[in-house]
């Protein structure tokens, strides 16, 4: 696995420019959010990714390692791919905070994608051979093209200061079996997923993101 501190060593860190957050295609609300964030943080840095293909899992954030303050200490607001990003393993956003923001101007191709608090803007298509799952405070996701996956499980809710903006918006088509996990209940998750993809906490039943990834990778059933 490539962890976020190692990842940053492979980037060019510099003051961001308008070109860093100009994408070829983007939902109107996504452009509004991105422009506003950029204008409010004009003194911050971008980490420009120089590597376009990872043969293993890429961890961009980690709550266990306090990734948000680590990026913040370096003044980094944006992580930017100027073209496509291909990950043979998983893409992990495993933190609560919404910063830094992730910008991929081209296409994103990945096995599984675990989404936490990082607002993400993809100018092209998103294609996952496995699952895209939002956990913790699943944040905004704006995609300028299509989204394709074996399973798409968002959990995002609108931000309090932007209540009219739907937090996940896809310009193109969504070719994935979808389960909205924001308002799920014990009954709805039990009806949608096999028992091995769930975890019990007291009286509550939740999806187990890691178990879903593992089962999907092995070709085992996840959906009922």
Q: How would you characterize this protein structure?
A:
It contains 5 helices and 20 strands. It is an alpha/beta fold and 224 residues long. A 7-stranded mixed beta sheet has the order 1-2-5-8-11-14-17. A 6-stranded parallel beta sheet has the order 3-6-9-12-15-18, with no helix packed on it. Strands 4-7-10-13-16 form a 5-stranded parallel beta sheet. A hairpin with a 2-residue loop joins strand 19 (198-201) and strand 20. It is globular, with a radius of gyration of 17 Å. The chain starts with a helix and ends in a 7-residue tail after the last helix.
**In percent, how helical is the residue content?**
10-25%
Structural class: alpha/beta
Strand content: 25-35%
Element string (H = helix, E = strand): HEHEEEHEEEEEEEEEEEEEEHEEH
- Alpha plus pi helix count: 5
Rg from alpha-carbon coordinates? 17 Å
List keywords for this structure.
globular, alpha/beta, seven-stranded mixed sheet, 224 residues, six-stranded parallel sheet
Helices and strands, with pairings:
Elements: H1 4-9, E1 11-15, H2 28-40, E2 45-49, E3 53-54, E4 58-62, H3 67-73, E5 76-81, E6 85-87, E7 91-94, E8 101-104, E9 108-110, E10 113-115, E11 120-122, E12 126-128, E13 131-134, E14 141-143, E15 147-148, E16 151-153, E17 168-170, E18 174-175, H4 186-192, E19 198-201, E20 204-207, H5 209-217
Parallel strand pairs: 2-5, 3-6, 4-7, 5-8, 6-9, 7-10, 8-11, 9-12, 10-13, 11-14, 12-15, 13-16, 14-17, 15-18
Antiparallel strand pairs: 1-2, 19-20
């Amino acid at each position: 696995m490539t962890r976020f501190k190692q990842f940053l060593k492979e980037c060019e860190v510099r003051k961001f420019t308008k070109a860093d957050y100009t994408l070829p295609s983007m939902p109107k609300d996504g452009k509004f959010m991105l422009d506003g964030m950029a204008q409010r943080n004009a003194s911050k840095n971008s980490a420009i990714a120089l590597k376009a293909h990872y043969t293993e899992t890429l961890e961009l954030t980690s709550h266990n390692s306090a990734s948000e303050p680590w990026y913040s200490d370096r003044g980094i607001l944006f992580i930017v791919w100027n073209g496509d990003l291909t990950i043979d393993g998983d893409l992990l956003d495993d933190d609560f905070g919404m910063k830094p923001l992730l910008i991929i101007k081209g296409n994103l191709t990945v096995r599984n994608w675990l989404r936490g608090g990082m607002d993400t803007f993809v100018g092209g298509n998103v294609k996952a051979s496995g699952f895209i799952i939002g956990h913790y405070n699943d944040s905004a996701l704006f995609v300028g093209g299509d989204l394709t996956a074996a399973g798409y499980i968002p959990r995002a809710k609108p931000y309090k200061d932007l209540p009219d903006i739907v937090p996940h918006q896809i310009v193109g088509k969504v070719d994935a079996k979808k389960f909205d996990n924001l308002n799920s209940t014990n009954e709805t998750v039990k009806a949608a997923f096999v028992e091995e993809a769930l975890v019990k906490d007291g009286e509550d039943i939740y999806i187990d993101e890691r178990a879903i990834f593992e089962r999907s990778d092995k070709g085992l059933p996840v959906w009922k």
